[in-house]
Amino acid sequence: MVSLTGKDILNGEQFTREEIDLIFTVADDFRDQLRDKPALNLMNGYVLAALFFEPSTRTRLSFETAMHRLSGNVIGFSSAESSSTAKGETLIDTIRTVDQYADIIAMRHPQIGSANEAASVANAPVLNGGDGAGQHPTQALLDLYTIRRERGDVNGTTIVLCGDLKNGRTVHAGVEVYKHFQYNLIMVSPEQLKMPADITSRLRGYGVHIRETTSLEDALAEGDVLYMTRIQKERFADPDEYERLKGSYILTREMVERIRPDLTILHPLPRVNEITSDVDSLSTAAYFRQVRNGVFIRMALIALIMGKV
Fold first, then answer.
1. Could you report the per-residue pLDDT of 214-228, keeping only the tens digit for each?
2. Which residue numbers are catalytic?
3. Which end of the chain is more exposed for a tag (fewer CB within 10 A), N or C?
4. Which domains, and CATH codes, for the chain?
5. What would the mean pLDDT of 145-149 be, rounded to a whole number?
């Protein structure tokens, strides 16, 4: 019997295929139920702590929306400056404090491994909403869920990952959940921002067929799904290097219509200039539907972890 009750959600590698299928089934069920009512009465009286030490729009608000749609309550903060971290409090002390208030914790922090550190001291389950350039497992799940909803199946697809693959926590987590399916992977990035070698080596060990290239147009000719990511300014120690690389890849409507009109287009957002706004009206541009899917996936995770379904 598959169960997520009481589990921390820390990285993409932790999920089995059975757990992914369960999460998606519950997410689909919640989506159907919310067509007729604004909320489900599953988490009444429970408290989610949303601890965001780094800026966030979609992850923070979708976690909060998910808890509200389950009829739960939310506490937390949206920046390190609005917490006692600004006074010098350690992460561990913050987590031990919040653990006295909340039943479940969703957290984003700039330090790789911070979610694991939090989980090591918290009694409440911890959901990693992004730990620096490390992992973003709930985003990975909603991305995979979106591919399935947009295309009907993940098996047999060719997924193109494009942009900052070195620092992209969404793609680091994503490839770990995709590994349970039969698909091909094309990685597009500047040489300086390639996927870390330990990740590509591990994927090849799983039997994933991988091709690495610097040409987006070549990759699009073979791709079924494009997962576009921004070049992450905040991850660069050298501002000049960011300026050199920030415009490396820009997807335009003309490119899609000329090369691959049926291309499913995803982006974890925010975007800067890597997808032009004229792409938005294409029927296969799924990134705002992807945003909405995040609510259902995070609802499913919260309910499953708290033993409510």
1. 999 999 999 999 999
2. 58-59, 87, 108, 136
3. N
4. 12-135+293-305 (3.40.50.1370), 137-290 (3.40.50.1370)
5. 98
